[in-house]
Amino acid sequence: MPGMPMSKDGPPAFPAGEFTFGPVYEGPPSYAHGGVSALVLDQVLGMAAAATGTPGMTATLELRYRRPTPLRVPLLVEAKASRVEGRKVYAAGTIAAPDGRVTVEATAMFVMPQRFVTSQY
Protein backbone atom coordinates (compact mmCIF):
# COMPACT_ATOMS: atom_id res chain seq x y z
CA MET A 1 0.00 0.00 0.00
CA PRO A 2 1.29 3.48 -0.72
CA GLY A 3 2.77 5.09 2.35
CA MET A 4 2.75 1.84 4.31
CA PRO A 5 5.95 -0.14 3.78
CA MET A 6 6.00 -3.67 5.15
CA SER A 7 9.00 -5.74 6.06
CA LYS A 8 8.40 -9.34 5.03
CA ASP A 9 9.26 -12.21 7.30
CA GLY A 10 8.69 -15.93 7.08
CA PRO A 11 8.59 -18.33 4.15
CA PRO A 12 6.22 -17.69 1.21
CA ALA A 13 3.79 -20.35 2.50
CA PHE A 14 3.38 -18.41 5.76
CA PRO A 15 3.47 -14.72 4.84
CA ALA A 16 4.11 -12.39 7.74
CA GLY A 17 5.31 -8.86 8.05
CA GLU A 18 5.62 -5.81 10.21
CA PHE A 19 4.01 -2.54 9.23
CA THR A 20 2.72 0.68 10.76
CA PHE A 21 -0.56 2.45 10.00
CA GLY A 22 0.07 6.18 9.67
CA PRO A 23 -2.47 8.94 10.34
CA VAL A 24 -3.88 8.78 6.81
CA TYR A 25 -5.46 5.39 7.78
CA GLU A 26 -7.27 6.79 10.82
CA GLY A 27 -10.88 5.78 11.46
CA PRO A 28 -11.81 6.33 15.10
CA PRO A 29 -9.49 8.86 16.75
CA SER A 30 -5.98 7.35 17.12
CA TYR A 31 -7.02 3.98 15.64
CA ALA A 32 -6.96 2.45 12.15
CA HIS A 33 -10.06 2.33 9.99
CA GLY A 34 -11.46 -1.21 9.89
CA GLY A 35 -11.62 -1.21 6.10
CA VAL A 36 -7.88 -0.70 5.86
CA SER A 37 -7.29 -3.62 8.22
CA ALA A 38 -9.51 -5.70 5.91
CA LEU A 39 -7.45 -4.65 2.89
CA VAL A 40 -4.17 -5.67 4.56
CA LEU A 41 -5.55 -9.04 5.63
CA ASP A 42 -7.09 -9.71 2.21
CA GLN A 43 -3.69 -9.12 0.60
CA VAL A 44 -1.72 -11.32 3.00
CA LEU A 45 -4.35 -14.09 2.98
CA GLY A 46 -4.19 -14.01 -0.83
CA MET A 47 -0.41 -14.39 -0.66
CA ALA A 48 -0.83 -17.46 1.56
CA ALA A 49 -3.42 -18.91 -0.83
CA ALA A 50 -1.18 -18.31 -3.86
CA ALA A 51 1.73 -20.03 -2.10
CA THR A 52 -0.25 -23.30 -2.24
CA GLY A 53 0.02 -23.25 -6.03
CA THR A 54 -3.68 -22.45 -6.37
CA PRO A 55 -3.86 -18.67 -6.75
CA GLY A 56 -7.33 -17.21 -6.84
CA MET A 57 -9.67 -14.35 -6.23
CA THR A 58 -11.30 -13.54 -2.91
CA ALA A 59 -14.68 -15.26 -2.74
CA THR A 60 -15.34 -14.70 0.97
CA LEU A 61 -13.59 -12.60 3.59
CA GLU A 62 -14.79 -12.67 7.20
CA LEU A 63 -13.28 -10.40 9.84
CA ARG A 64 -13.56 -10.29 13.61
CA TYR A 65 -12.47 -7.02 15.15
CA ARG A 66 -11.23 -8.02 18.62
CA ARG A 67 -10.01 -4.60 19.76
CA PRO A 68 -9.05 -1.29 18.13
CA THR A 69 -5.94 -1.37 15.95
CA PRO A 70 -3.59 1.45 16.98
CA LEU A 71 -1.91 3.92 14.65
CA ARG A 72 1.80 4.81 14.64
CA VAL A 73 3.06 1.57 16.24
CA PRO A 74 4.59 -1.53 14.63
CA LEU A 75 1.93 -4.14 13.90
CA LEU A 76 2.41 -7.77 12.89
CA VAL A 77 0.31 -9.41 10.17
CA GLU A 78 0.44 -13.17 9.63
CA ALA A 79 -1.48 -15.59 7.41
CA LYS A 80 -1.59 -19.27 6.60
CA ALA A 81 -3.54 -21.42 4.15
CA SER A 82 -5.42 -24.13 6.03
CA ARG A 83 -6.67 -26.35 3.21
CA VAL A 84 -7.10 -26.70 -0.54
CA GLU A 85 -10.22 -28.24 -2.08
CA GLY A 86 -9.90 -28.32 -5.85
CA ARG A 87 -9.95 -24.69 -7.02
CA LYS A 88 -10.73 -23.38 -3.51
CA VAL A 89 -8.15 -22.35 -0.91
CA TYR A 90 -9.06 -21.50 2.68
CA ALA A 91 -6.80 -19.24 4.74
CA ALA A 92 -6.71 -17.50 8.10
CA GLY A 93 -4.70 -14.60 9.46
CA THR A 94 -4.34 -11.94 12.12
CA ILE A 95 -3.10 -8.45 12.83
CA ALA A 96 -1.47 -8.09 16.25
CA ALA A 97 -0.43 -5.05 18.29
CA PRO A 98 3.09 -4.64 19.74
CA ASP A 99 1.99 -6.35 22.98
CA GLY A 100 1.09 -9.46 20.95
CA ARG A 101 -2.65 -9.09 21.42
CA VAL A 102 -4.66 -9.77 18.26
CA THR A 103 -6.66 -6.80 17.06
CA VAL A 104 -8.23 -8.36 13.95
CA GLU A 105 -8.75 -11.99 12.89
CA ALA A 106 -9.76 -13.02 9.39
CA THR A 107 -10.71 -16.09 7.43
CA ALA A 108 -11.14 -16.22 3.68
CA MET A 109 -11.84 -18.49 0.75
CA PHE A 110 -10.10 -17.88 -2.57
CA VAL A 111 -11.25 -19.47 -5.82
CA MET A 112 -9.00 -20.00 -8.80
CA PRO A 113 -10.95 -19.12 -11.95
CA GLN A 114 -11.20 -21.86 -14.55
CA ARG A 115 -9.56 -19.38 -16.88
CA PHE A 116 -8.31 -15.86 -16.36
CA VAL A 117 -9.81 -13.28 -18.68
CA THR A 118 -8.05 -9.94 -19.01
CA SER A 119 -10.30 -7.00 -18.24
CA GLN A 120 -11.11 -4.73 -21.16
CA TYR A 121 -11.08 -1.71 -18.83
UniProtKB/TrEMBL annotation:
It catalyses: decanoyl-CoA + H2O = decanoate + CoA + H(+); (9Z)-octadecenoyl-CoA + H2O = (9Z)-octadecenoate + CoA + H(+); hexadecanoyl-CoA + H2O = hexadecanoate + CoA + H(+); octanoyl-CoA + H2O = octanoate + CoA + H(+). The keyword Metal-binding does not apply. GO terms for molecular function: hydrolase activity. One of its GO terms (cellular component) is cytoplasm. It is an enzyme of class 3 (hydrolase). Keywords: Apoptosis, Cell membrane, Cell projection, Cytoplasm, Fatty acid metabolism, Hydrolase, Lipid metabolism, Membrane, Transit peptide. This is Acyl-coenzyme A thioesterase THEM4.
